[in-house]
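Why predict the complex rather than its parts? Because the way molecules touch one another can change local conformation, and only a joint prediction can capture that. The input here totals 780 residues.
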Amino acid sequence: MDNKLSAEEFNKKLERTVTVRVVSSRGHDEWVDIPEIALSRIQNEVNTSKKWLYIDGVQQNANTLTVDKLISAEYIILTNALVGGN
Amino acid sequence: MYDLKFSEEEILKAFSVQEVVTTNLKKLKKTFKTDCMSYFDHVIDNGLHQIIDTIYLTNVDDGGRMRISSPNSIPKPGDTPPVTVSYFKLPVEHMANITTNVKIKDIDANELYIFLENLSMCYNAQIVPMTRAEEKLYDANKIYDDLKSFIEMVSGPNIFTKLKNKTLLRSGYINTNNALDEKRNAVDIASWLMPTGKVTTPADNASLNKKIEKYDGLGYIETVYEEDNHRLGIIKYTSKSYYGTPRLRKLVLLNHADALFNYMDAGKLVIINKHSSYEHNGTTIIKSALLGKILFTDESTVMPESRVLDYMVEHVTGTDTHMLDDSQVKLFVKKCVESDLRKKSEEMEKTILSKKLKEKISSLNSGKEILLNNMNISNNQIIYEKQVLKRTDSARWVPSFLNDLIHYYSFDDINFDAVFNKFISECSATNSSGIIGDVAFKIIYKELTNKINIINTTTYVNGKRINKIEIQDCLRRAICYTNQKDFDEFLENVSTCSLKFHRYLQTGVEYEVHGLRHTEGFHFKLPLERKKNIMYIVLGEHEYKVKNTNRLIDMQRSRDLGEIMELLLNDKVIEGLNIADAKDVLKLAKFEYQDAILKSEKLLNETEKTLKLIKQHDIKMNETVVKEGYIINGKMRQYVVANTDKCEVYEYPSGRYICIVDKSTSQVGKDRLINRLYALVNDRALAQDIHTLK
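Output of the joint prediction:
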């Protein structure tokens, strides 16, 4: 019984996905991934492409982001970074 | 055989009429006005042929010019037999919008003279006398008995009635900015329109003439004609130009219901509206401003100097004529003097400031630090909002740097923008080293002589070879980096692939193709990718190797699809692309571009929902209006972001411009706007990166 339940949970876990929108020259890209992969892709985009992460409109530090936070998020977007001009 | 079919009796009868007419014209011994008609024809028409004798008004004696024509069609059997008629045909110009051929049985010399006199007056006043109603009544085929009805049509008093009733097609010189150069014309026109009108003129024209010489556009009401609750004024004014100072005149007609009617008095001084240096374009002046920009209601007003008049013209607002009495004129004089004094004191203050600034700058040499427009300045570095500009190759570079700047900028304008631009420009032009923001730079210009003794200069920034024309851009970007490693990595990237190519790698190469018609044509974009120093066009699952990226980029200037196709098929530009491939490339590129724009619009809609923002129109701030944009409630303050290509950001409601730039150009459509909307909602968290938010 216990084993069966954990298999269901495992399947559910596999079926859970998060959608991430990324501002790009193609209008925007959209990925749908399982949270664990999405987390690593987000961190990679933030650290290499210097994107900024917003979850439900609030800016987040990608390096301290958790899978739970991603699962509970309704809207995830990576925008291009800005800087103060002269 | 040609048969004229005119009986001798008919011809004799017709020519005797013509002889009487020409004799009477000569007898009158008057010069006929020829502005609108210089000749007329005597026509003898037998229904098939015409004998036409042209009589010239400038020389009635010469007997005219005779010709025979056959304008009519041959009568068919059964048609009413033609009757021979004779008449005079007057080709009158400027009476209606087209030449009017008036047919008349007989010509009375005196009537013709009066008709042409009146018509000439209409022409000189640029008035088209025939109204639409009169045009309908006029019958081009009818042979009129005499000219009486036409004289009525063009007589001055009747034209005045038409002006009052607003039935004229064009009111000519009246109530327009058309100017009359000669006094005679203006007075002639006025007395022709109102021959029985009451005429008033100022008591002392000489002193008024002297007054108006003072100022360009200053004038006075020289004569007023009054009749039937209407006043027709002649305004005389000076107009200074390259060719001298002519005195011009304008005609103004007002009825008693007009607000300005009571001020239309002879001798009143006015400053007229000078729309442009070209005064003869005939624009209708709006009713409320017929008497000019300013009207001086007191005739005794002492006319102030030109400087004060300039001040008055600058400070009266709106389009109506402004009435100024003596006390208001005095008030203007006072205000103008105060304004001049204030300007003078500001100038003095600036001179003192400049002197102080020079003293401050020289104090840098003794090791002192100064504060200038929020910049902390010492003799070897300038710091603004923690952003450092420093040269390590020169110990005391700042004093001479600032001394150069004060030659080109006023005190207030020596801000970080100006300093930064000059710093970048100076450093990039020569071997130099220093610090920009948090990162160090070192520029080296190295000269190398090749085998054939040609000297080539190669340029290096931080040891990385950089295209000379991109050094300035690289230094500008330095301010965006917070650590040396990132900046050097950026330079490494620019060294292997220039900034120009980097930009195209991020954005793709965009083309605009024009179609045959205005609405045809489309945009498309070729995305580029770089692998092992080779450029590829990547569309869907296809990759095409680019052999000459510069030619591909230069082709953006072309709008011709044929030229673009030729380029795509050129093996020296793109390798191995055939016609079918090229078509596919265009199709995919067009689709991808349109798709990107649509996706970006969709993302903006989602952003509006997520951030709970509503697009607003005509957002008013101090001295700034944003036609379309968003008001954003940040944690630090409120902002307005304009929905334009530049996505300008302002502090709300002060309207202070906040400069924010994108670090990346990898975006299309509304993406710039989306970046700003998210960032400004999170202003406190991002102020560290966007220093202009602090």
